[in-house]
Amino acid sequence: MTYKSYVFSITLRVVGLLISLTLLAFGIAWLNTYAIIGGSILSLITVYNLYRFVIKRFVEMDDFFESVKYRDFSRWFVDTKGPQDIRELHKGFNLVNKTIKAIDSERQAQFVYLQKILEMVNIGIIAYNVESGDVLWVNDSFLKTLDFPSFKNISFVEKRRPNIYDELFETYHSNTASVTLEMRQETLKVLISDTVFEMEEHSFKLIVLQNIEETLNRNESEAWKKLLSVMTHEIMNSIAPITSLAETLQKSIQDSMEHPETRKLELEDVNAGLNSIKKRSEGLMKFAKTYRSLNKVTHVNKTKIKASDLFSNISELMKPSLEEKEVDLGFKLKDPNLLFEIDSYLIEQVLINLILNAIDATETVSAPQIVVSATLSHKGTAQIKVADNGSGIPSEIMDSIFVPFFSTKKTGSGIGLSLCKQIMLLHGGKIQLRSSEKEGTEVSLVF
Questions:
Q1: Maximum distance among all alpha carbons in the chain?
Q2: Running along the chain, 447 residues long, what does each successive block of 10 average in pLDDT?
Q3: CA distance linking residue 173 with residue 319, whole number of Å
Q4: In the chain, what is the straight-line distance between the N-terminal and C-terminal CA atoms, in Å?
Q5: Signal sequence span per UniProt (predicted)?
Q6: Pick from 169, 187, 171, 191: nearest CA to 179
Q7: CATH 3.40.50.620 for domain 121-211
């Protein structure tokens, strides 16, 4: 309809121009002054009218395209006044603006929806421009995991945490990889994967970061429960043959007592059977004692205690062992009023275990030294550290030292460090290790 109205209007003006030009040509050919003047005036009027008609439409379209250029789709063109074709043109413009606004609103809603989902997931996500380093998008989980404030360019990370910058932004992880990041006062185990994509002639890198330490601790706690259940079952299975052997011996003795002439008691068999029961019972007692130390720790009774009092108790308890080994045990405490809300009995057990391990690790050192310190981190979390200058822990067994029953000592049960970790998990904390062979070990209890 708009097209037909436009064609009719422009055709009418072109016909009018042809008529005025014909009149002008007739006047010139016949030297008719009136025809020349009339034709000239009519020609000028029709040319001007045609020019205004065409230019007005082009101006309207140029105005619309200008608003499209600057993405101003809120403008409303008047479609109730003016020529019919312009009104129809304005209706078309308004329809385009309305459609684009609807598409934009839908896209914006989808973006907000996706953004909320990505903010809620417990996985860190960041996307940035590879060339400029400008951050396209980053969620709170990424910032929280790495303890970063909000930043607009990855150069912020390069200046403050070069090690993390190299691992995250300089290293390409084609497959999901487990890496350990060195934070300010702790280490963090994460899963990391990344990919590069193109968008509007620019290259962007998307990095996905997942803190797996909490998941590992939760899974380990569940594994403990299953392990204790399984081992209880195994203990019962071990008791069954002892019971059976005892019943057999009892029956033999009873038969010998009732029929002494026909059923003589074989003392060697009885002795052998009793020895078997004794040995197996001793093994089960030792086994049960080991598991009891694991099973009894199911909850904590927290009370407030000064770090200085805790250290004083440990010092008194460890004096005899230290005097025999000639080990220098020192305590460092910047704030004597530093308080811990802990189960002091269990934490004393943890510290004694760690100090005994440190004593064993410094046996081959000429000047053995152990330092126990307590600090308050910048996050407000309390930490106790036990450091020694011993032989250190080989890197190949670092991931196994907290596994129940894993031990490198000939007389070790492999329960000590596992029990320490279990106690820290019950406190809602964690235990971390830093060790270098022939340089020493530092164990941190983070509450």
A1: 170
A2: 67 84 84 83 86 80 79 77 76 82 81 71 84 86 83 87 85 78 75 83 85 68 62 56 70 78 72 68 60 61 86 74 76 86 82 83 83 81 88 73 60 64 84 82 88
A3: 51
A4: 77
A5: none
A6: 191
A7: no
Please give the Cα distance from 176 to 190 (Å, whole number): 10
Tokens at residue 239, please? 């008791």
420 CB burial (10 A radius; 0-12, 13-18, 19+): buried
Hey, how many other C-beta atoms are within 10 angstroms of the C-beta on 20? 20
| Residue boundaries of the structural domains of the chain | 2-105, 121-211, 216-295, 303-446
Q: Quote the tokens at residue 432.
A: 């971390």
Cα atoms found within 13 Å of the Cα of residue 256, Cβ hemisphere only: 11
CB 346 within 8 A of CB 357: no
∠111-117-121 over CA atoms, to 5°?
145
Query: Rounded to an integer, what distance in angstroms lies between the CA atom of residue 107 and that of residue 96?
Result: 16
CA distance 329 to 389: 11
Q: Is 136 helix (H, G, I), strand (E, B) or coil?
A: strand
Scan for tokens 């606004």, then name that residue: 101
Nearest alpha carbon to residue 344 among 306, 395, 388: 306
Judged on CB neighbours under 10 Å (0-12, 13-18, 19+), 347 is buried
Nearest 10 degrees: Cα torsion 381, 440, 414, 372: -40
**Contact between residue 357 and residue 393 where contact means Cβ atoms under 8 Å apart:** no
pLDDT of residue 329: 84
Structure tokens at 16: 């009018």
213, 189 in Cβ contact below 8 A?
yes
Which DSSP state fits 402?
T
Helices (H) and strands (E) in the chain, counts: 11, 12
Output the CA torsion 300→306→311→314 (10° steps): -40
Q: Give the C-alpha distances (Å, rounded to integers) separating 25 from 46, 97, 194, 275.
A: 15, 49, 79, 141
Fold of domain 303-446: Heat Shock Protein 90 (3.30.565)
On the question of a common fold for 121-211 and 303-446, the answer reads no
Neighbours of 387 (CB within 10 A): 20
Tell me the sheet residues that pair with 193: 208
DSSP state of 409: S
